[in-house]
Each structure stands twice: as C-alpha cells, then as structure tokens.
Amino acid sequence: AWVERHDGSAGFRADASYFQRAGLASSSAVSFEAQNFPGRYLRHSAFTMYVQPVPDAAARADATFTLE
Asked: What are the pLDDT digits (tens) for 38-54?
C-alpha cells in the first residue's frame, strides 16, 4: 500500500472521498464506501488499509469501524 501526493485533479479528489454507511457487520458501527468505486469499502487487514469489495462475513467485519 502507498499514499499518493494530492495532484489537484478531480479524479484524485474522487478517489480520496468516501461515503459513510451503516456498518456492514454491526448496525452500531460504520463502514466507508469509496465514492469512485461503488461497492468497494475501506477494509483493514494486518495493519494495512485497502479499498476492496466485501464478498463475505469476514470482509464485512474488516470493513466495519467504531467511531469514538
């Protein structure tokens, strides 16, 4: 995984934008769907963040976060 420098483009802004959704694995939590890639969510695995589909229960749990 890597972080890109903001290049000022509309594409970059869209790629860096997410919709907060109801938690995929818990209604008391949240998930973040990528604006530019509908159906793909922020997921965590082994201390790394990914933008991926959530095809199963394990993936939905990886894409569910508690805000504090």
From this structure: 999 999 988 889 999 99
**Cβ–Cβ under 8 Å, residues 35 and 14:** yes
CA pair distance 64, 45, nearest whole angstrom: 12
pTM of the predicted structure, to 2 decimals: 0.84
Both tokens of 52, joined, read 């991926």
First and final C-alpha spacing in the chain: 25
Distance CA(48)–CA(57), nearest Å, equals 19
DSSP state of 47: T
Residue type, 24: L
Task: Residue 11: name the closest of 31, 30, 29, 34 by CA.
Answer: 34
E strand or H helix at 59, and its extent? helix 57-62
Amino acid making up residue 14: A
